[in-house]
Every structure is written in structure tokens, then in C-alpha cells.
User: Fold this.
Amino acid sequence: MLMALVRRLMLSCLILFMVAVFVFAATEVLPGDALDVYLSSDDLAVMSEADIDEMRQRFGLDRPAWVRFWEWFSGAIFGDLGKTLIDERDIVDLIWHPLLNSVILGAIITAITLPTAFTIGSITGYKRGSRTDAAVSTLTIVGYSIPDFVIGNVLIILFAVWLALFPAVIFVFSNASTSELLAVSLLPALTVIIGHVAHQSRLLRAGFIETMNSEFVERARLSGLSERRVVLRHALPASVIPMLNSLALYVAGLLAGLVVVERVFGYPGLGRELIEAVARREVHVVQGITFWSASFIILMNLLADLAIMALDPRVRSAKSA
Amino acid sequence: MPILEVKDLKVGYVDVQRQTLVAVDGVGFSLEKGEALGIVGESGCGKSTIARALMGYLRPGGEILGGSIELAGNFVFDLGPNALRNLRGEIVAIVPQNPLSSLTYHMTVGAHLQEILQFHRGLSAAHAKAETLSLFEATGLPEPETVYKRYPHQISGGQRQRVVIAAALACQPALMILDEPTTALDTTTEMQVLKLIKDLRKKIDTAIVYITHDLTLTNYMCDRVLVMHDGKIIEQGQADTIFEQPKEKYTRQLVAAIPRVDEPPKREKIAEEQLGGKLLEVKELSFAYKPQWSMAQMFRAVDSQIVVKNVSFDIRKSETLGLVGESGSGKSTVANIISGLQPPMGGGIYFANELLHPRGEKRPPEVLRRIQLIFQDPLSSLNPRHRVGTILTGTIMGFLGVSRREATDRAVVLLEDLELPIGFLNRYPRQLSGGQQQRVAIARAFAANPDLIICDEITSALDVSVQAQVLDLLMAMQKKNQTACMFISHDLGVIREVSHRTVVMRHGLIVETGETEALFEHTNDPYTKHLLAAAQRRDDSIDQPQFRLNTGSNQPSERPYQS
Amino acid sequence: MSEATTWNRIQRSPGTMIGLALVLAHALVAIFAPWIAPYEVTSIVGFPMSPIGTPDFLLGTDNIGRDYLSRLMMGGRTSIFVALVAIAGSVAGASFLAISAAYIGGHYDDIVMRIVDTMLAIPGILFVALIVTGFGRSEAVLIFAIGFSYMPGAIRVIRSHALTIVPLGYVQAARLRGISVFRIFLRELLPNCIEIITVEFALRMSSSILAVSALSFLGLGISPPTPDWGLMIAEAVKTIYAAPMLVLLPSLFISTLVVGLNLASDGLANAIGLDAARGLN
Assistant:
């Protein structure tokens, strides 16, 4: 068991490293270095060779790739993402508040989505084939098919344009207070929640149905136990474990979803910073945000696997083969 | 007053296209208090449906089309859900076939019993625990205190089944239904569990309905027997009478099809004089699973450490060598090694005096042609996307290099030899029955004109009567082509029928090798004697403690064979 | 089960049939748009922001004065094209890698799976943002980025299925026929993975169309003046108070296409006997 834990941790570290290599290579090696990407053709027309060389030296871009990689990587895992190209601001300073804002939004979304999806999934799974199930099924397919930005804009039109309840976009500074933040996060959260609950409840429903059809549930029923007991004590715990497996995928989807929704509502989060950085071709910022997001997903994956190890007795006692 | 009275029961299943398939067609029988009734039949005869119907339960799609079931004065299908729940567990309980998948994997074994005792008998937690431990003792579980805390996958198959039996007996039901309870266990464990049930039954005076496909088991366990076929009862009577003097034609065929361990074979093997010199020689083969350093294999459940140690034997031309052993004995591994699917760690394989390459892919095509392998599960051994004709002609053209027309002609001959209609050339495997599929697999094996055929449990997944037919045809093909055969099985009766010589394996080692008749009649080896006793359902097979498999969870006591 | 009954089961589900109808409708519009659209998509032909039902402009005009109906009809073409090429390439590549990894196993399998894990750690949008930052915004880059971002998920699913097939008798028997690995791949493995590959294709088509639209909306995808629904929504947001229909119409178009695709692929998966939702794991 301990061996399995250690190997799992080592695997995570390996993946983290590979992600770093990939992220770095995609922006600072393959297309040329950061400066090549950053400077537009206009800039190139204006600047002289000497100026460009000088910029290169200033940013340390004249050194070989692996040296640059190592410096960036060792900084990134300990919280230093380097400086922006445009005005040499510390990147972490730049994204810290937006990061927190996104985390808050994400947490609100998750806290509401998961229990709701679990409930809907289990109930529709239990009542499989009924009209409730069929109706909810179609609703959920529609729910996760409609893009986030469509739902967001429709909500804006609904609440801001037609009902005039909220202003469409509230401009908030990144370091807004918590109460301001909560007010602003209502619509974005709702937008994402709709799609996610639709999607997750379908996955959970499928898992629940599979569990309810298993032999051990049949045996429990045939032992004369109450239906309540069979579902709550035998079936439900068994359907939680597969749910943990898809947790990491969910988180990945969440991060992606936030980018879109933040743009729709102008929410001061990490997604907004990301889009701006891409527009300005701030290579290091994009690298940093991507790397930290990926690290978070790897962490979630690891936690999910650890949770499974803790909860599934079959895994607990498996020897590391 | 019978405790169970079934009158003219009709049960059907409704499929997606709203067609009803009748599974049980007018079945009626009764059961007295404390009596043991066996229900015997081949797959699809309706016995499993009856088993669950007795508890008022039907699998999804099931419908009662007529008749009644009266259990301890209650008409089972008239009861409401609450009454049904009381019935189940307290008056009737079931022991299902596969203990690993019937126990809830995330609950301890003790918890399973605890909840039944607390729910049905209203016992307090402490009282329930004490009762659980005494039930564990009564069912022969070693170290009940320790087992109590274990999870189902941590104990052996035989122990799991004892747990399920304990759970069934917890409320001392008037009727216990056993649905093929030992099919997933190997012979040694099987006898232990059956003896246990026999003893317990006498103590508690519980009536039993014992469902199985194996008449030798009902002969051992039951007072009376019902023989079913196609949803109907063919014959009813005293267990030993049915077995020794069956009246109906179907029953007689069924009994005749059972390969006997205690009698000489019914079929004629290839004559001794026609056997040739050494064809295959296996020298000191060994194999063990090494832990693989593979990065993500974190959660892979541990395979039983099947090891093959220093296995040596030979097979002569046209000879059939039987390889027999319980699960975990390594016999399938030996087959895989010889055919080249698994390279050994030590030892060599000599075919026609040439050393074979350990990996099948690297052997010359001529060699591959001369050794053919037939698998246990016929459906998965045939590509579902290829028609039978393609499967056969593909093999023929590939190995014999003939034209398509010639190949088709040969395929037709093969089908005829195996008594399959020529129209099957255009059919897909899933359109055939299990027995027919296996015959196609045999045809494919013979299509290449091999010198040696390796049969790995090829009839273990088939019904007894289908098995008999397949064995007849296999031996006929062998005679026609003078092909040698390595026949692997756990079923001693089948081995006696087909093989000239027999090798007995246990835990990866060869225990005994010898002429089949001599081995079966006069062996002195204690393990072989034990296997023979268990196969003949003799109680003395249980009293050999050294052959009792260990209680550790990794000790193989499960047969992977599905029936 | 024969192909006939699969089709029967598909027909019995109203959701699936609706889905197929929607997809078909969109496909027809997208294919024939250049001929049936009333105006050129880039020409300014009318008064800006004319409402729906204006004579000559059935669905009004956009904020510059281009005919909206024409733009809407043509709007799907680029997204669908990009998505189609990206997913076709992605699923093809994924099938090859997944099946070979399942069959060959060993270190090759390990390496493939580690790379898959790495890619799965990066959310799709971030991945595309990364590529676009480095390589610029063009249709080719978009196809490449989207295709690659969907590959690891597809590899995982197809590989799990392939792993259940590899140990089966007929594959093992094929090993002993002396035929090349490539032939085993082609004749034994691939045909028996077709079903799951088809389902994967259908599922990923819908999410990649969504992705292209979302990316265009964010400004990372298709560039103006090419009409694209996502892009049109982004432009229309600026005048959301004055003309909300400019946002709602392309929204309707995207939604109906994706809903149709999802209903259809869900029904298809059910008819084949898989559970589409689970397949994503």
C-alpha cells in the first residue's frame, strides 16, 4: 500500500515535469524564443538589430534552451513565474488577485454543482425508464449542449436587457472586495452550473444504473433488506467511487469553462488575464497560467486517486504488482 | 403439509421488441419440510428463473404468465412489498452462484451478516456480532474473529461461499435455495462446501432447493430430483433412481453423456499400434510472473502467482495426452507456452526433434501450421466480424497456400465432418450456439492439417450433452487425420474418455504421469487419489487436510470457468 | 444483433430522430449556403441593425449593415470544416496509437499513456491559447491545436476498449498464424473497435464545434471578416442592448446544431449498446 502511494506520487511528479517541458517548448523553443513571438512585424520594422539583441540579453534569452527552461521551471514550482515582457512586472503579482477571484468562482460553482448533480443523477438513475427520467434526460442533453457563452449571453439578455434587473457587465477591479465579488459572480456561476449539472448528472445516472444492476445489489434485495437500506448502504457508496475518477476531468472542464464565462461577464478572473496576455503575446504570462492550471489538475487527479485508495477496499489491499 | 407448493407455473421474459419468451412452462412440484430437492437441467431450461421466482423475484423483463407458488402458506406473488421483504431472509434465503460478485465489495464480511441479523431478528449490535461469529464457526470458517473484519476479496472463494451460506442461514429459514453454489469453485473446495451444506441442513431442518446442471451433485446432495428441459419438467423422482435408472429418453441421454470417472471410457481411442514416435517433447519448462516495473500499474489486482516448475513430458504421434489439474495448477500456462503465446523462463520445447522458438511469432509458418490451439470460450475465439466461411478459408489459404476455390471446398468438407450445415459458411459466429461455435473452432484447427492440437478446456463451458457431441466429433476428426492432441481439462471423466496417457498437475508441478487406465484404476499417488475421490463425490475426499487449499486470499481456489 | 435491429432501435427513440433531423438540416444549409444565401456575406447591403422582418433582409442586418441571414447560413461552414478535419485526424491518429498501445503493451504503451496523461492535465482552451500564442491565429493552427487537444481523451477511451479485445481467443489465434502485426491490426483489431471509434467521433464532433465557436468568441479562433457564429456573437455583444437578436440568432444556430449532434450520438451509442456518457471516461 505504501509502495503504491509512493509510486503514485512519483507518477504525478513525472507528469508535472513533462507538462512543464511541453509548455515551455510550445512557446519558447518551437516557434522561436519568447521575443520572436512577442515582437510583431511592426516592432521588427522599427527596431534595429542592436536593440533586439539588447532586449534579448536583458531577458536572458540568448542562453541555451535548457538553461532557460531550468530557470523558469525551478521558479515556477516555487511561485515565481518571471516577469512580463512589456513592462517587466512580476507575473505572480499580476495574476494573484485574478487567480483568487477565479478560485472563489470555481469553488462556488463546484459546491453547488456536485451535490445537485449527484442527487439528480441518483434519482433519475433509480427511476430509470420513468417519464421523469425521460424528461430530465432530454433536458440535460439540451443543458450541456448549449455553449456556456450562449447561456451567459442569454441570461444577460434576460436579466439585463429585458428585465433590467442587473447591469450587463459590471466592471470590477481585480482586487475588489469579497462582497462586490459575490454580487458579480452570481450570473457567471449560474451559467456554468447549468451546463455542468446537466453533464455530471448524466454521468452519475449511468454509474448509478450500472451499480443498481449489479449482483451484490440483487443479493442484498433478496436478503429481504429494506429498499432504503439496499440503496443507501449498498448501492450509493459503490457509485461514488467512479465519480471520483471523473473528478479530475471535471476540474479541467471547470477551468476551461471559467475562461469563457469570465469573458462574457467581464469577471475579473484568471481567464480574463489569459485572453489579454494572448492578445499582447505575453509569452511568459501564458506559460505561467497554463503551467499552474495544469499543476492544479495534476494535484486534483492525485487527490482523487488517494481518495479512491482510501475508500475502495479492493484497491487498498492490492499489492503493487 | 408441504412447505412449498408450485402449481402449473408459467414465467416469461418480454424483450425490447415486446415479444414474450416463455422460460418456465407449466412447472409443478412440492417440497416437504426438511427435504432436499434438486432441479437439474442444462442452460436455458428455466431453473434459475424458478429459483428466484420462489422468492417472489423476477429479473427485469420477467412476468408471471400463470400458475402459483405457495410458500409456507403464502402465495408469493400476491404479497405486497413489505410482506415480501419479511419472507425473504426469514422464510426463504438464497445462496447465489458467484460469491465474489454477490457480496458488496465495500462492506466487511461481518457487516453483511450483522445487518441481516439486526434487521430481521431485531438483535442489538453486540448480540448480532456474537451471533455472526457463531454462524461463522458453524460454517467452518477458520478464525472467525479475523474473518469478520475482512472484505470479500480478501478471503478465498470457498470462504466467501461459506459467508454467503452463513448469511442465508442467519434467520433459520424454512427453505434455502442454492443456485449453482459451487460452479465457481474447484473440485476440492466444492466437496467441502457441499458436505457443509449437507451437515448444516440436518442440524437446522431447513428444506433445500438445489439448482445445478450436474446430476452427480444432486445424486450426492438431494433426496428427490426434477429434470428440466426447455421450461418443462421431463422427469421427477428419487435422486439415486433418476441417476441409475432414468426412465425418460432425455434423462437417459443426459446421464449417458456424463463422462464417468469410475468406469472405463465409452469411446474408442486411436489404437496403440497406430501411435508413432515422439512428436512433441517438453523439457523442464518453468515460468513465474515477475512484478512488472510499469509506471501506471498501481492498482492492478494481483494475479494468482501461477508458476510452472520443471515440467517435462512428451506426446507421441497420433496420441492424446490428458493434462488434468485444478485451477492454479498451471495447465493453461503450459498450453500457452507450448503454442508460443507465452515465452517460458526456462526449459525447451522440441517438436519433431527441432527446438522451437519460445515466441510463437518468430516460429516458421510450417511449424505454426503443425501445432494448433483451441480455446475454452468459443465465442471469443472467433472474430465476430468475420463470417464462418472467411474464418475457415482464411486459415486454409494462409497455411496451405491454395486457391480460394480449393479452400472453400475444403471448408465445406470440414463443416460436413463436424456435422454443421453448409449454410453456416455465410453466418456470423454470434448466430451460432455455443456448441456450434466450438465445432467451428475445431474445424478451424483441423483446417491447417496439423500434427498436434492443443485443446484448452474446450468443453468446460458447454452443457453436458453438447460436450458429449463435441467430444465425439473431435475424436472422429482425430482418427480421420491421425492427429495428436494435448487435452487439458479439470474434469477427470472427460480426461479418461479421450486420453491415452494422463499427466496430473498441482501448483505448477507434475504430480504423476501414466497410462490413463492404469492411473485411474490403480494409482498410488495421494493427490491423484484425492482428486478421483472428489470427482466421484465421495465423502472421504474431504478428510485430507493436506489438500485443503490455504485460507490466504491469493491461493487460487476459484475456477475461472464460466458455465 | 444485425444492423437492421440497430437502426430499428434508433428509430424508436424520438430524441435520436430529432437529433438526426437537426444535424441533417444544418448539414444541408452549410453545404448549399453559397448558392442559397441571398447576399454576399461581406458586402454592406443595408441599414445597420435593421430588425427581423425588414423587407429584403429576412433576419435583419448586423451592426455594420451586412445581411444577417446570409451570414448565419454561411456561419457554420468554417466551424464545421475545422471541427471535421480536426476530429477526423484526431480520431484516426488516436485509433492508431490506442490500438497499437493496447496490443504491443510494454514500454511503448507506458510512453503513450504518460504523454496522454500529460496532455490531459492541460485544459483544452489553455492548450489552444498556448499554441495560438506561439504560432499565431490561422485555420491550420486551429485545426492542429483542436485535433491534438482531443487526441488524448480519445486514446484513453479507445485503448480501454482495445484492451478488452486483445486477450480474446481470436486475436491470440491470429498471433499464431504467422501474419504481420499490421495485418492483425487491420483485420482483427480495428474492425472490432469500429463501434467505439464511431461513437467517439460523434461525441467529439459536437464538443469540437463548440470549442471552435468558443474560441472564436474569445478571439482565439477564426478571424473576421469570415462569418462564424461564435465571432458573430462576440461582435453582437457590443450592441446587446440595442439589438439583442443579433446575439440570439447565432446562439440559436449553434445550439441547435450541437444539441442535434449530442442527441444523435447519444442515441447512436445507446442503440449500439454502449453508454455514451460513460464512454467519456
